Amino acid sequence: MSKILIVGGHGAGDPGAVGGGHNERDAMRLLAKEIKALIPSYVDVYDTNLNMFRETDKGKGIYITPYQNIIELHMDASSKTNVRGGHVIIHKNFKPDPLDLRLANAIKERVGWSRKDGFDYRNNLLNLNICAKKGISYRLLELGFISNEQDRARIITEVKETARVIAEAITGQKLDKPAPPKKEETIVTQFLNETGRKAARNMIKKGVEEKLFTSEHENVGKYSDTELISYGFAYIDRKTNNK
Ligand SMILES: [Zn+2]
Q1: Does residue 179 form part of some domain?
Q2: Which domain, by its residues, includes 201?
């Protein structure tokens, strides 16, 4: 499959809808970036300095894109702050394809649907209409209401989780969960350098001489970083407390 182009709505001076100190332009560009980071071989992101709607209106944008598959990202707004939920907009001459259906389910999972069955069939949007004419597969995602606190939390605050759900809808596969945090041991020892190792070995050797450690600790050349740190601290502790 050729790459899908992800377009953040609005831009180039147009912030789109606003709510809760956020705007649609920046929120959708951040989401596009997070999706790209998860599945770089599946998607590209449209120039974030451009407003694709305006570019198409100038005869560029959709008219000159080499991409055959496009997802445009938007959020709704309402004066009623309790209104929430999202949906997928496709051209009214078409039926949802499998990608559209997966994306609608991704929206349902994050913010619920604001339209019956998760779709709105339109023929009065510029990019949508030009794509239909050119035979480009296109859908516009309305990812909840920026005027609604819960939708903002799910889409903007939890942008990484939303990006993961959309990336899984694009690929049709579950992504690997993020790697578990490194063990504490690895974190501690990655900061130990050769100077620190040498100092620890010297302390442990002195500890043996001073009978703070038994003679079995003479073989410090073979100690792991964790052992060097542990016995190094033990030396300081025994020395300080005169054990
Ligand atoms: Zn919009």
Answers
A1: no
A2: 184-241
